[in-house]
Design brief:
single chain; Transposase; mainly alpha; globular
């Protein structure tokens, strides 16, 4: 992995946290644009959960 993809994979939690905190002020689209990620990617990362039972970390959070 090179460049921003490596940074994204290392800093996913921090990026989601930052977008979540600043989105009430400027909106999710603008916050994502500021951090150069798509809003789709933000929502995908936000819905990921850490799954310790899966070798490949393939667990997802189910919306109820």
């Amino acid at each position: 992995m090179r460049g921003k993809r490596r940074i994204w994979s290392e800093q996913k939690k921090n990026i989601v946290s930052i977008v979540t905190r600043i989105s009430p002020l400027i909106g999710i689209k603008a916050a994502c644009k500021l951090l150069k990620i798509s809003s789709q990617r933000f929502y995908r990362w936000k819905n990921e959960i850490h799954c310790f039972t899966s070798t490949f970390n393939l667990c997802r959070k189910f919306l109820t």
